[in-house]
Amino acid sequence: MGLDFGGGYRLRAALAEDHAGLNMVCLRTGDSGKDATEREDDPDLLGLIYAVPYQVYEPDFAFVVDGPNGVCGYIFGAPDTPGIYAKMAADWFPPLAARLADPGPDESRWQGSDWARYAIRHPEFVYPDVLHRYPAHGHIDLLEEARGRGIGRRGMEHVMAKLRRAGATGMHLQVSPVNRGAQSFYRKLGFEVLKDEVLPRHTTFMVTGL
Questions:
Q1: What value does the mean pLDDT of the chain take?
Q2: Fewer CB near the last or first residue (10 Å), C or N of the chain?
């Protein structure tokens, strides 16, 4: 079951044939909500890290936003964070890593999509004890054309309700520290920033009970 947002926009289940669209949306929102096309030399890697595996491993909680021009956003949920991380570590990233050169750990030498190649070859799964009260997590990205229509709020509420019905007691998100708009959006949905010394400093964690 999806949602009709009006104006030719609707939420529906994400399918395997949407992978190219997921990669496109992830790329065009990949610079803290802005278009990362000019920055990346491999246009698919962002989506293969942050979008496609959610459709593959949690299809019941994976949705795309269709608009007049096709896929223009996605909303993903994962009710069991350690479970999906284990699948990604064992089955998703190793085959991708096998076809990518390792750019090495020296960030000063990285160019283009080297940061993504490194992330695929050395994936970071953050789920310390402080997040265990919020075992679900999610991602949302919308192209500019789909913003300001209430799509994000209604879509997130839909996914959060599904996660709650699946038994998740809380949810966490990772947000770019410089993306103030996204942080404000999540606050309106009941999320708040969680600060703890065990959490990485390069990203902001926001949490809410379900």
A1: 97
A2: N
Whether 185 contacts 152, CB under 8 Å: yes
Instruction: Provide the CATH number for the domain around residue 194.
Output: 3.40.630.30
Burial of 109 (0-12, 13-18, 19+ CB in 10 A): exposed
β-bridge mates for residue 6, sequence order: 9
**Residue 133 scores a pLDDT above 70:** yes
The domain of 182 spans 3-209
How many domains does one find in the chain? 1
- CB contact at 8 A, 88 and 115: no
Interval 50-75 mean pLDDT: 98
Q: pLDDT grade, residue 2 (50/70/90)?
A: confident
- Is residue 1's pLDDT more than 60? no
76 forms beta bridges with 62, 139
In DSSP terms, 192 is beta-bridged to 207
pLDDT of residue 12: 98
Burial (CB count <10 Å: 0-12, 13-18, 19+), residue 67: buried
